[in-house]
Amino acid sequence: MKAGSLMSLPKEINEFFQIDGGQTLLIKGLPGTGKTTLALEIMNSLCREHNGLYISTRLIPVGSTPPIPGWKR
Question: Is the pTM of this model over 0.85?
Answer without folding.
Answer: no
